[in-house]
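Continuing the series of single-chain predictions for the mutant panel. This is the parent chain; the variants come on the following pages.
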Amino acid sequence: MTAAYRRVILKVSGESLAEGGGRPISPAAAGRVAAEIKAAADLGCEIGLVVGGGNILRGIAVPGGGSERVAADQMGMLATILNALALRSAFESLGQPVSVMSAIPCGCAAEAYDHRRAQARLAERQIVVFAAGTGNPFFSTDTAAALRAVELGADVLLKATKVDGVYDSDPVANRDARRFETLTYLEVIDRKLAVIDMTAVSLCREQKLPIVVFALATPGNVVRAVRGEAVGTRVMEG
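Parent structure:
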C-alpha cells in the first residue's frame, strides 16, 4: 500500500481525545488516534496535525464579545496545547518521531511555529503537531489547518470528524439527512454547511486545495484517506 499524497495536513478535534467519565484527555483515546495516524505515516506520507481544544474549552462557545471573546479564544488556544502534548506522548510511546509547534509562545513545552523548520521536520518524516490555532482570536482551528496546509504545500486538507462526511442537514437530528460524496467550495459556502469553518473553505477555494471530511472513529479511515480512497466527502473545484 502506498500513499496518494506526498504531504497532508490532518485536522482532528479535541473531542477525539476525550472518553467517558468526564475526562477531557484520555491516554487510551490519544493512543488510538496516534496509532491511526502513525499507520498512515508508515505509508510514506508526510503528516502535519492540527488539533482542536473543544474537549477542554471551545473559545467561541463562551458567551460575550469584545475582550471577553478574545480571552475565551486565548483559553481555547491553550487547550489545544494541552491536547498537542498528550498526542506527542502517544506518538512517542509508539516510537513515532514527533514535534509540537505552537503559534503562541509557551516556553519549553513546545517550539514556536516557524514554517521553514516545520517543512524540514516534515521532510524528515516527523509528524508535526501544530497547536494554538493561528495564534489569533476569532479564527478557528479549521482555519489554522487550512493555513498550515497552504503554507506548507500540502496536497490535501483532511478533516477527521465525528460524522462520516458532509450532510445536507444534521444527521443526528434528521434521520433522512443526505450525505454528499463530492461538493464544490461554493456549494459548501452557499448552503452554509457547518461541518467546516467558512473561512477555511474560502482559503482552500482560493488556493485550490481539496478538502476531505471523514469519520475518525472508523478504524483505518485515516489510512484510506491518505491512500486517496473514496471516504467521506470530498470538497474541491467544480
